[in-house]
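Action item from last meeting closed. Structure (306 res):
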C-alpha cells in the first residue's frame, strides 16, 4: 500500500497518480475500477472517484496494489551538501545538474537516489519514486531544499509550502536590464502546446502564477535580482523572466541560445528557505551560498552586490 500527499492541485486524478506511482493511465483506471484507490480531501473520503476527478493540494491518495510496490529505485552513494539534519528532516544544498527524482529514462543519479543511500528513513508520502521529497527544483536550478524523514513531517512541510507560510527566495542573473527596482509579475501559466516539457503564458485556461522581484544590481547588460514566489508553478521564475523579455541567463529552454557568460544551465539559485519545524514549531531559516560558477559570473559582469 502506498500513500501520496498531493503537493499541488491538478485537474485529473489519473494523470497525477500515474506520474507519482510510475503507472500507466490505463493501470490507474483499472485500479479505480476495482476500488483500489482512495482519496481523502479535507479529512473526508471522496466517493465515486473517476479518472478525471480533480486533486487538491493536501489531498491524501492511497493505492493498494502490488503494481505500486518495489519499483526498483536504487540507493546510491552520492555526496550531498547537508545544511541541517535531525530525526524529522534534512535540509540540503542541491547542486546544479542533479535531478530531484527519477523521470522518463532516468533512474539513477538523482537526489532521491542519493537520499536513499544515506542512513535513516524517509517519508513515502510523495510516492515510491520520491522518498522524502516535499518540493522540487529544476535539474539545473541549484540551492536549498527541505526533505522529510517521516510522513508527519512531510504533511506539515507540504502544508506550509502550499499555504506559503514557508518562504523561499531565489537569486538569478537575468539577460538584459530590468529598469524597475521592484515589481510583481502575474499571469496564467499552462503547458506549451508545442513542447509539453515547457510552460507558457496563456490568456485563459491556465493556472494563476505570481512572482515578486527586487533588483540587487545591474551591469554589463545583465540584472542580478532576487525573487519571491507567491505561487509555486513549474518553471515559474524562468517563464516570468522570459515573459518580461529578461530571461534567466544561460537558460537553455527559455533564454537566448548563447550568452557572453559561457555557462550551461540557468543561473538560478534557491537562496533561502524558512519554515516552522514540524515537531517543535520553531521558525528555522537556511541559506545556500551562491555556487562558485554563479559568483564567477557576477564577477565577470562586475557586479559587487552579492
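Sequence:
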Amino acid at each position: 500500500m502506498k500513500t501520496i500527499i498531493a503537493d499541488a492541485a491538478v485537474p485529473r486524478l489519473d494523470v497525477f497518480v500515474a506520474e507519482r506511482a510510475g503507472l500507466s493511465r490505463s493501470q490507474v483506471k483499472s485500479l479505480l475500477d476495482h476500488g483500489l484507490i482512495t482519496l481523502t480531501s479535507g479529512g473526508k473520503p471522496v466517493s465515486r472517484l473517476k479518472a478525471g476527478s480533480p486533486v487538491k493540494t493536501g489531498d491524501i491518495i492511497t493505492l493498494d496494489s502490488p503494481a505500486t510496490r518495489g519499483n526498483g529505485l536504487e540507493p546510491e552513494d552520492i555526496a550531498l551538501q547537508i545544511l541541517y539534519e535531525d530525526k524529522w528532516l534534512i535540509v540540503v544544498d542541491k547542486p546544479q545538474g542533479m535531478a530531484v527524482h527519477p523521470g522518463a529514462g532516468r533512474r539513477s543519479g538523482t537526489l532521491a537516489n542519493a537520499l536513499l543511500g544515506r542512513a535513516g528513513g524517509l517519508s513515502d508520502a510523495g510516492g515510491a519514486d520520491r522518498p522524502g521529497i516535499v518540493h522540487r527544483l529544476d535539474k539545473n536550478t541549484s540551492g536549498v531544499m527541505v526533505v522529510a524523514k517521516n510522513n508527519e513531517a512531510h504533511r506539515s512541510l507540504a502544508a506550509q509550502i502550499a499555504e506559503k507560510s514557508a518562504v523561499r527566495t531565489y537569486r538569478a542573473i537575468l539577460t538584459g536590464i530590468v529598469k524597475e527596482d521592484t515589481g510583481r509579475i502575474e499571469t496564467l501559466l499552462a503547458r506549451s502546446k508545442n513542447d509539453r516539457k515547457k510552460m507558457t503564458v496563456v490568456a485563459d485556461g491556465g493556472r494563476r502564477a505570481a512572482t515578486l522581484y527586487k533588483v540587487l544590481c545591474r551591469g554589463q547588460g545583465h540584472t542580478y535580482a532576487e525573487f519571491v514566489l507567491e505561487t509555486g508553478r513549474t518553471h515559474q521564475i524562468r517563464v516570468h523572466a522570459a515573459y518580461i523579455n529578461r530571461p534567466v541567463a544561460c537558460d537553455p529552454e527559455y533564454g537566448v541560445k548563447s550568452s557572453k557568460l559561457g555557462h550551461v544551465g540557468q543561473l538560478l539559485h534557491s537562496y533561502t528557505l524558512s519554515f516552522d519545524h514540524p515537531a517543535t514549531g520553531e521558525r528555522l531559516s537556511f541559506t545556500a551560498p551562491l555556487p562558485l560558477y554563479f559568483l564567477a559570473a557576477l564577477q565577470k559582469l562586475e557586479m559587487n552586490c552579492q
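Note appended to the action item: Helices lie at 13-21, 25-33, 111-116, 151-163, 236-243, 292-300.
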